[in-house]
């Protein structure tokens, strides 16, 4: 049996199946990138809930795996060279899983880099900007009397959606007919913007017809439906 005892995080979240990839996460827009990817690839894994209500993400156990204190993170007992690999940052994890399984990242070099560029677009734009909209619409920021900060992020979210809408015109997915980690990286964020954050009307989501159709296609995938709820909240 694989021994993961050298990793302190397993003391807080014991591995019932140490031979499987261990996922430490919460079903947030960032977290579900990895759970969706794992469901899509069929790679055996064991999910562990990192409970924000208990400040789990800032516990010494979790920070032993990710010193930045953010979900998701993974521990793969069968990493490069057959040695365990601990990894954080959702974009890096998507790339790792794509290369490990040979799925959802094109083998053609040009197409591969096009997929990666959209993952970087998500990491640098979609996530941070949509997340700020969420703060000002659903969380503490909604109580700020000055609406200029909110409006700044709403305007940027609209601009980003416009970029996405233009790219998706006439396409099923960001790379055309091929569903890739580019799509997986963004589905949770767009779904969260209009669903969990309830900002669809504020950003005029219905006007972005191609993004809306893309989201519907993504949400129709069984692996996406499962991944959006993993790990199950307590």
Automatic annotation (TrEMBL):
Residue ranges of every copy of the GST N-terminal domain listed in the record: 18-105
Residues annotated as domain GST C-terminal: 108-234
Gene3D superfamilies: 1.20.1050.10, Glutaredoxin
Residue intervals passing through the bilayer: none
UniProt xrefs under Pfam families: GST_C, GST_N_2
PANTHER family: DISULFIDE-BOND OXIDOREDUCTASE YFCG, GLUTATHIONE S-TRANSFERASE-RELATED
Name of the featured protein: Glutathione S-transferase N-terminal domain-containing protein
């Amino acid at each position: 049996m694989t021994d993961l005892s050298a990793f302190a995080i397993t003391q807080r979240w014991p591995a019932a199946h140490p031979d499987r990839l261990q996922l430490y996460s919460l079903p947030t827009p960032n977290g579900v990138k990895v759970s969706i990817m794992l469901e899509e690839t069929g790679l055996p894994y064991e999910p562990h809930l990192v409970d924000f209500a208990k400040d789990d993400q800032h516990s010494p156990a979790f920070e032993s795996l990710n010193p930045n204190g953010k979900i998701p993170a993974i521990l793969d007992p069968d990493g490069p060279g057959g040695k365990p690999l601990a990894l954080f940052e959702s974009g890096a994890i998507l790339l790792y899983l794509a290369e490990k399984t040979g799925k959802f990242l094109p083998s053609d070099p040009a197409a591969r880099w096009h997929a990666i560029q959209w993952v970087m677009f998500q990491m640098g734009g979609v996530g941070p900007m949509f997340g700020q909209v969420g703060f000002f619409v659903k969380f503490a920021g909604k109580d700020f009397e000055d609406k200029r900060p909110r409006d700044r992020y709403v305007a940027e979210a609209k601009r980003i959606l416009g970029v996405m809408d233009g790219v998706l015109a006439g396409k099923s997915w960001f790379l055309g007919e091929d569903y890739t980690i580019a799509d997986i990286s963004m589905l949770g964020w767009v779904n969260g913007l209009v669903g969990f954050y309830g900002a669809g009307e504020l950003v005029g989501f219905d006007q972005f017809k191609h993004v809306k159709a893309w989201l519907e296609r993504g949400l129709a995938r069984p692996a996406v439906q499962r991944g959006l709820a993993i790990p199950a909240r307590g």
